[in-house]
Design a protein that fits this description.
The protein has 638 residues and is of the alpha+beta class. Helix content is 34%, strand content 20%. Helix 2 crosses helix 3, helix 11 runs antiparallel to helix 17 and helix 14 crosses helix 16.
Length: 638
Amino acid sequence: LAVLREPVSAVDHLARTAATSPKMAPAAAIAVAPFLGKTEQLRRRTPRNTARAYATRRLSTRAGLLTGLKGLFSRGGKGAYEVLQAEQDQIAGLPGDAKPAAKVELVDGSYYALKDPKDAKNPFEKFKLAKNPYFLFNKSNLKEFVGETFSTGDFVSFYDAADKDTKDSIDHRLKWLGLFHRPKTTKGRFMMRLRIPNGIVTSEQMEFLAATIEKYGDDGCADITTRQNIQIRGVTLDDAPEILDELENLGLTTKQSGMDNVRNCCGNPLAGLDKEEIIDTRPFNDILNKYITANGKGNGVVANLPRKFNVCVVGSNDLYEHPDINDFALIPAIKDGVVGFNADVGGFYSATRCELAVPLGAWVAKEDIAALLNAVLCTFRDFGSRGGRQKCRLMWLIDEMGMDKFREEVESRMPEKTLATAGTSLVDTSKPRREYYGVHEQKQEGLNYVGVNVPVGRMLAEDMFELARIAKEYGDGEIRLTVEQNVVFGNIPTEKIEAFKAEPLFEKFKINPGMLSMGLVSCTGNQFCGFSNIETKAQAKRVAEQLEQTLIFSKPIRMHWTGCTNTCGQVQLADIGLMGTKVKDASGEFVEAVDIFLGGAIGHEAAIGEVYKSNVECTKLIPVLEELMIEKFEATKK
């Protein structure tokens, strides 16, 4: 069944099954047998720290296996390969034309840009109009641009002397390729953001990412993000084209992961493992990601939205995906006996406004999820505000049009020009959210998944190599990311659990973390982000650990840190949120401080927190939090 739904991500599993248990999976053995020898030869001569070798191995193995799968599963009727190809044809054929009244028009047959320059009412729309960021998706154009940036001998001297348009390309247009330059904090070094649908990374992919940042020494590290994604740091621009090529060979892309694009598609981190899951979110996020990026080539139809756009697919009663804060959330629902999805729209966080998603009042069959997302995105693209950046998210357009009119517009863009009313949700709101930390039995007999805490999501190269090794040695070779910046390992045989728990890595990344550490989330902070008023990651970890040493907790407390009002750390979602600011201390010097938020909640009782106490100096924060946790969260002193 895994092969039928997603043959690409099943490749490693098939190879491992065929090599170890051919009697249990004869079809898998037949499909991969011609390629196993080549795979093992490549593995034996692959140096651990050679990134290119990993990519080469992965490409040759995947290409061969898919060829075998195509032949095996298409015999005797309409097989899996043809079904998947039909799905891709449907995605490629979705209508994306702008309406006559739209603010945008098709340019060069591939990209939608503003018709009237007067509508470019903020600096971002102006630089998008001045030069199409989409040109960087062409590999030769990218390599030519990268070559130009080193024409003076080094990047920094070129950047310092560059004109505004060139700096706009470096600092902003490259974000369409997932490359982020922060001249205030790390001039000459780039953060690279991936797209990892459903947050599932293979061990080979993790090894390549580890090898990539390892070469950058102290400048290299990686973060798990609040969108089930990975960002690697320390990248130099001259290395970027080769890294992007090798990511593509590994089945990954960075395209459209930044700026005014659809961000990573989130799903259930326990998909396919959990006894209580409603629906496996993996194939649906894969379909959505392929639509958003046109199978990794770049989708100009939706590559110039008014603002960023978040998407998720819900898979269980736990709402691990946080659908309430997504612009577009698919909720499992049944209508006329058919299981599909209801849609919620408009959830978001920003510096000036935070809103929870609201029902679109629509249901779609499983095969129409990409069509619905396309209809919503094209409506947003055509009519969303291009003015003040704080008023450019989808909810502002819904407010302007009214939900009835917005829904009518979306319906008019569906392939059949119709949209069913909402079905009956399959999510049981009476069931509380379960923690994924620790060891849990899977739906598959004799197998287990284990949730592991990665403090504030920060990983070094050696951590990532170990994560990859452990995933291969004990499980299925996959590392699953969560929106709380942690990881889950799946398919671990019961007889291997004790050895798994004894791995040295889990002294750093805890299987059973403390009551504060388990819910700790943090943005990047001023180590890498010029917008942040404070250092967040190290400070968040230190404060949580110190409080765990002095207090006894009766229940977990979710504590989120963010460095500025952009609230990338989602402080309004937390039990206790800490937003960075600056205040003058007793001597008149500006020092790091936080505004404390209370009242946030996730799950079936989702709520947006509000400011409880302002301008608390970070050096005086511990006693304030101690008192707060005792008074509001039933903590006691040790």
